[in-house]
Amino acid sequence: MKIHLLYCRVPNHVLELPDICGALSSEDGEAKKHRYIEWFNKYVGEKYKGCLTGEDCYYFRCSFVHQGTSQHPKSSYSRVLFVELTATSNIFHCNILNDALNIDVQIFVMDILEDVEKWLDEVKDTEVFKKNYARFMKRYPDGLSPYIIGVPFIS
Predict the structure, then answer these.
(1) Is the overall model pTM greater than 0.90, yes or no?
(2) Fewer Cβ atoms within 10 Å of its own Cβ: the N or the C terminal residue of the chain?
(3) Taking each helix axis from N to C terminus, what angle separates 12-24 and 33-43, rounded to the nearest 10 degrees?
């Protein structure tokens, strides 16, 4: 079986970014379903109007990240379909095929990343963001006293 290869081809970390952005923008610094949906609809939703809502993206994120599937019982679609990048020179994106949603992986990843950058420009100077970012996972190239000194790590 090649589960690890299949899993790596789908943008699981990109699906988590709306959660992170929503949390970093909130007073309590926590990810919540409604924050994910609101963030997606505000920043990415226009690109997927009539195809992918924040709620459906949230359900896809939940099913993929937690169960390794593209099928969620609360989704508007029976599943999400990705055509493999090397399978064709055609682009298949934002298509509804019977009861399934087809999304181009590269376009989807680039859309999310582009909108994360837009969002960051908007919030980076706010007090809420600064407070939450202080606790955000970071790389410490020289360690972090009193835990580890002289060795790079992430915490």
Answers:
(1) no
(2) N
(3) 100
Could you report the per-residue pLDDT of 109-146, keeping only the tens digit for each?
A: 889 999 999 999 999 999 999 999 999 988 999 999 99
Encoding tokens for residue 132?
């939450």
- Block residue for tokens 């590269």: 106
- Residue 83 tokens read as 């055509």
Work out the burial of residue 18: count CB atoms within 10 Å of its CB; fewer than 13 is exposed, 13-18 middle, 19 or more buried: buried
Q: How far apart are CA 28 and CA 12, in angstroms?
A: 25
Q: Show the tokens assigned to 142.
A: 């020289």
Tokens 């809502």 correspond to 53
Can you tell me the distance from the alpha carbon of 59 to that of 46, in angstroms, rounded to the nearest whole number?
18
Q: Where are the alpha helices (DSSP H) in the chain?
A: 3-9, 12-24, 33-43, 54-62, 105-123, 127-133
